[in-house]
Amino acid sequence: MSEENPTSHWHLYLLECKGGSYYAGITNNLEARYKAHVEGKGARYTRANPPLRMLASKPYADRSAASIAEARLKKLAKADKLAFFAD
Residue limits of the GIY-YIG domain (predicted)? Predict the structure, then answer.
């Protein structure tokens, strides 16, 4: 499944999954990516831990910026991840 579309913004997103865990990812089609996770066609982690809801998302100008933000987010403690989206 290709999600590349040069005219769209990239998004960093945070899902709450079954069991209370969080999953973070990036995409340039937020709606389609969330649907894929819900349908069990997304990441391996969300196939095993289905998403309950999207907690937050934040747009970025390009894939590189979104990837850098994702790496920063994943280094944070769970308690600090939601606050990351307030910046």
Answer: 8-83
- Domain assignment of residue 2, yes or no: no
Model pLDDT, residue 72 = 98
The domain spanning residue 63 has which CATH number?
3.40.1440.10
Write out the residue range of the structural domain in which residue 56 sits. Answer: 10-81
Model confidence, pTM: 0.88
Q: 2-8 long-range contacts, Cβ below 8 Å, gap at least 24?
A: 3/27, 3/28, 3/29, 3/32, 3/33, 4/28, 5/29
Task: Label residue 20 exposed, middle or buried (CB < 10 Å: 0-12, 13-18, 19+).
Answer: exposed
Type of residue found at 85: F
Domain total in the chain? 1
Residue 1: the pLDDT is: 37
* Predicted pLDDT at 37: 97
